[in-house]
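stage 2 :: seqdesign
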């Protein structure tokens, strides 16, 4: 009975077995959005992750999980990746590499009119 409950827990927590949706849920549940943004576009010194190649992202996460980080910023990722399973890494990287959330046609106004003469 316990094995069955453990098997069903991820399905209950993350919904369907769709790797994209599971990856999306994991991205927010694990707090990735705190540094990489809700649209995975990066914040400040933290890099954008959306639309990156899946093999690259998988390699990075597996290295972090193995406690390999060659920069201070990379070493900050180790605690986040340490508990990830191969399936979770696969799902998160599927979400990021196939990212299709919040797409819009927004174009920023880069004109200088009305900016106070700076």
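stage 2 :: out
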């Amino acid at each position: 009975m316990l094995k069955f409950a453990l098997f069903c827990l991820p399905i209950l927590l993350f919904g369907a077995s769709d790797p994209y949706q599971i990856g999306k849920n994991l991205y927010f549940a694990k707090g990735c959005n705190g540094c990489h943004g809700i649209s995975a576009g990066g914040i400040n010194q933290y890099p954008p992750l959306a639309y990156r190649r899946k093999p690259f992202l998988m390699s990075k996460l597996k290295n972090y999980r193995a406690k390999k980080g060659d920069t201070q910023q990379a070493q900050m990722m180790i605690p986040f990746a340490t508990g990830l399973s191969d399936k979770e890494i696969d799902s998160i990287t599927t979400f990021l590499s196939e990212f299709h959330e919040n797409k819009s046609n927004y174009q920023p106004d880069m004109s200088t009119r009305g900016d106070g003469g700076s």
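stage 3 :: structure notes
- The chain has a mean pLDDT of 83.
- The radius of gyration is 18 Å.
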